Amino acid sequence: MAELDALRMQLADIDRGIMELVGKRNAIAKIIGERKAAANEEVVVPSVETVVVKRYVDAGAAAGVSAAAATRIARAVIDESVEVQGRVPRHAEPKSICIVGGNGAMGRWLSAFFADRGHAVSVAVLDPANALYPVMTVAEACKNAEVIVVSTPVTSAAAVLAEIFASKTSALVFDILSVKSPVESVLRQMVDAGMFVCSVHPMFGPSAPSVAGRNIVAADCGCAAAVEEAAVLFSGGTVLRMPLEEHDAAVAYVLGISHAVNLAFSEALVRSGFSAETLNAVSSTTFRKQTAVSREVSRENAALYYAIQRENPYNDAAVGHLADAVSELRTLGKEEFCERMTAGAAWYQA
Questions:
Q1: Which of 67, 126, 163, 314 has the CB geometry, 3.0–4.6 Å to 252, for a possible disulfide?
Q2: Cα–Cα distances in Å, from 54 out to 28, 43, 181, 266, 286?
Q3: Among the listed residues 181, 132, 177, the one whose alpha carbon sits nearest the alpha carbon of residue 151
Q4: Chain segment 87-142, per-residue pLDDT in tens
Q5: Edge-to-edge strand list for the sheet holding 172-175
Q6: In DSSP terms, which residues pair with 239 in a beta bridge?
Q7: Hey, how many other C-beta atoms are within 10 angstroms of the C-beta on 268?
Q8: Is the Cα torsion angle 317, 319, 322, 327 positive or negative in sign?
Q9: Domains, the chain, ranges and CATH?
Q10: What's the CA dihedral at 200, 203, 205, 210 to 10 degrees?
Q11: CA angle in degrees (0–180, nearest 5) for 10-11-15
Q12: Are the C-beta atoms of 204 and 86 separated by less than 8 Å?
C-alpha cells in the first residue's frame, strides 16, 4: 500500500507539472491573442490547429501515448487557448448600442460583450429597476443609438421590430432570434424602405465565455452592408453569412432535430423505470457521451427550446425524418441496416 501511495504522489507531481505547463502555454496564447486582436484577425485558424494536433500525435507516438489520447489532449489544450484568446478585449470604433431585452440571459451576455469591446451600451427593458446598464425606451434608441439589437422572445420580436420600422431610424438594426420566419416579413419591409437591417443568430448560449471558436450566423435580408457591419461587431468569432430564407431550414436540423433527439433520449430514460444511478453504473462509452449532451440540453431554457421546436415551420419535416429513421431501423434486415450505417458514415466524410 505504501508503494502505491508513493507512485500516486509521483503522479500528483506530474499532474501539477502538466498544469503549470498549460498555464505557461496559456500565457503565450494570450500574447498571440493580443496580436490577433490588434490586427483584427480570427482567433481560430484551422490550418494551425491541424499542425498542433499532428505535433501532439507525433510526440505521443514517441512517448508511448496513443494517437487517440494525444488528439484528445491536443483538442483540450487548443480549446483552452481559444478561450484565453477569445477573452482578450477587441476595441473597435466605439458605437452606441441599445439592447432591446437587455435583462434576458442573452441580452445581458450581449451587453457585457459589447461593453467589454469599448461600446457604449444601453438597454430597453420592461423592468428598469433590474437593469445593469443605462435604460432608454425603444423610441429613444431609434433616435440616439447607432446599433439596435432585438434580444426578445420570438412572441414579442415582431412588434418591437414594427416599432423600430415605424421610426425609420438610420441605426444598424438586427435581431438575434433562433427562428426567423415570424419576423422575416417585417425585416424585409424595413430593408425595402431603405433601412440598415440584417438578422443575426449566435449559435451558442449565454454561458459562452467568448465568441472565439463559436459560430455566428449573419443572415442577409437584402442589405449586404448591414451584414458586414454586424460581422465586424462579432469579430473574433466565426461569422457565417447566408440568405435569410435559408436560415430556418438549416437550423431545423442544427437545432430543431438535435434538440429533439436529446429531449426524446431523456424522455425514454425517464420512462425506462431505471434510475440514473443504475444506468450510469453499467454505461457504455456511447451512453456516457449521449447522456452528457442530453443532460446539458435538459437544463437549458425550456421556453426557448419550445419556441425553437414549435415556431420554426421547417421543424416538422426535420423531426419527421428523425421519426421515420427511428421507425425504419426497427424493421430493416441486416444487409440494409449495414448499408444505412455505411451511408451515414460516408455523409460525415463528404
A1: 314
A2: 20, 19, 43, 37, 26
A3: 177
A4: 887 777 899 999 999 999 999 999 999 998 999 999 999 999 999 999 999 999 99
A5: 120-124, 96-100, 147-150, 172-175, 197-202, 215-220, 238-243
A6: 216
A7: 10
A8: negative
A9: 2-86 (1.20.59.10), 96-244 (3.40.50.720), 249-349 (1.10.3660)
A10: -90
A11: 120
A12: no
Long-range contacts of 300-308 (CB under 8 A, 24+ apart): 300/205, 301/105, 301/205, 303/153, 304/153, 304/178, 305/259, 305/263, 307/153, 307/154, 307/155, 307/178, 307/179, 308/178, 308/179, 308/251, 308/255, 308/256, 308/259
CB 150 within 8 Å of CB 173: yes
Residue type, 349: Q
Grid coordinates given for 314 = 421547417
User: Which amino acid would we find at residue 85?
Assistant: Q
Mean pLDDT over 228-252 rounds to 94
pLDDT of the residue at 86: 85
Q: Taking the mean position of all CA atoms in its chain, how far away is CA 28?
A: 26
